[in-house]
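Archive entry. Fields below.
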Amino acid sequence: MNLFRTTLAACAAIIIGTAAIPAAQAAGGGTKPPEYPWSFDGPFGTFDRAQLQRGYKVFREVCSACHAMGLVRFRNLSQKGGPEFTEAQVRALAADFKIMDGPNEQGEMFERPGRPSDAFPKPFPNEQAARAANGGAYPPDMSVLAKARNYERGFPLFLFDILTQYQEGGPDYIKAVMTGYEDPPAGTTLQPGQNWNKYMPGNIIAMPNVLNDGQIEYPKGPDGKPSAPETAKQYAADVTAFLVWAAEPHMEQRKRIGFQVIVFLTLFAGLLYFTKKRIWSRLPEHAPGTH
Amino acid sequence: MSGPSTYVPKWGIAKWMDARLPLPRMVYDSFIAYPVPRNLNYFWTFGGILMLMLVSQIITGVVLAMHYTPHSTLAFNSVESIMRDVEYGWLIRYMHSTGASFFFIAVYIHIFRGLYYGSYKAPREVLWILGCIIFLLMMATAFMGYVLPWGQMSFWGATVITNLFSAIPLVGETIVTFLWGGYSVDNPTLTRFFSLHFLLPFMIFGVVILHVWALHVTGQNNPTGVEVKAVQKDTVPFTPYATIKDAFAMICFFVVFSYFIFYMPNYLGHADNYVQANPAVTPPHIVPEWYFLPFYAILRAVPDKLGGVMLMGAAVVILAFLPWLDTSKVKSMRYRPLARQCFWAFAVTCVVLGWLGSRPAEQPYVLLSQIFSALYFAYFLIALPLLGLFETPNKLPGSIAESVLSKIKGGSAAAVGAAAASEPNTKG
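PREDICTED_STRUCTURE:
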């Protein structure tokens, strides 16, 4: 096995030696975001309803000024496994918006209050209008943003992720970017409309810092205090959780069914194993004591 | 191997059918009485697992096609509507997308099993080549399927891969225009890829039937590589022995498969594919799906485009020539100490090439890709042809039954085995 061992050792040395390179490159482009303990982590993770409801409030009051979320409908907000607003609340939330509908029988477009079946209205009529209003940058649709962002885990972390079920690269990155604004390092001059962000690849981001402490009022508990800290960090976590739900509205059902399926299949495999042993023991040389 | 049919129709209707279209006889001979070497290990269950994966992909794929819209402006959102609004659409879609990866996991295990135990050698050359054709069709199908969600990686992956054909002298540009249905990857590309992605799995199914047919003519290879000598002693009937073992292995495979479907559905994919295709924005780092990475590394190892394409093509095609490149008369690497080391070095080479394929095309990765591409081809072109001439194989057991017995009885039978050991099997 000498040849094999030598090859293996050489390969291991090469991989370990060069594995440091992407990390170094990534550091030039953006720092690795910290891992946040999300309520939806792991095989039994579920969304925190109150957090999703707060996240909706942050989205509604801050993000939705520039970002669309065109694939989510108001009715989704009352579905199981989501923020679970009551249907009456959803009707009220939808009615907050004016929706362009039509044409009516006179052939004219008209505005009406939103209904639960409506998709979240978009802040701009088209991409050009969005760019014109945002200094040339196009704020992406947020419907699947939490799945569309990630950062490189690198070797060997990406292998351990299979066992730890770490798949919150998207939310960790998004939360980090929202709270990652800094003054640019000395000697760097930013163009108008550019901002410096520690976690953004390349560090330059068009989106300004939008979350500040105390900016959004959270529902008050019975003691008159807000139900969660009104800090930028908390806002970022809450709206990120909301984005994860928006991107994966059936996540809770998926993990729940997954557990049932895996338990069932494991038991089934166990039964098949013993059946197999029994059947193969019919062969003379497999039967104990015949030789 | 199949031998004369032992099927005896019991009922009147079965006799009537047997005289007209002996379908029950075929099923009986192929899946019940069919003799299977008794010493097969669990690596031999992957054929059945692959059959199951193909059927699973076809069923989920047909359901997905009912809800999918093949149009460049609608495809992305139609996939999202499957994920959100179709009842259990998320399950069907994740089964299909994760299923593609698990299909390749199974096929790679299946191929490496064939490489280790010399399953490509006479008399199984045609069986092996049919397998190579299936592998090629699988690659084409998976590539076109990945384009359908019309995300950024779909679009740019399609652009990079179809552009490879432009390297062909004289007709390259024409071929690319023909593949695209225009002058860039666009709606006509998507619609033809959708059509072909629906068609190819059924072609795979057709070649799989030939593959199984060829298998049932020659019979299975086995871990010793010694051919079946006495059906009574060396084999067991497919049912119940192989059926129950395959069923157990399939369910175990599905436990792992389910783990990914339900807990890590996007782990094997790429985040950029959740961004809708945009011809104006190139992703910073275009990478194919993991199962193409070794070939992608070989492609990029050559600075010349045509050379890279040819080398990548050769990396796949060379598999089909394996029955004649390996000159050894001994099938199983169990009895080939040197070849066994080369095999494991080759396996590690493939993994390293996969990792290199995921790196950006810059130094030192390009140099490493060149070194490991050379090692990849060295296995086929240097190691296997030469080892057969210079290597002294260990003694083979006299028969399958003997190898099984020696394992059970330990030392005493091993002595018998050594005494009865025959000459290595000849090639023809």
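CURATOR_NOTE: The mean pLDDT of chain A is 89.
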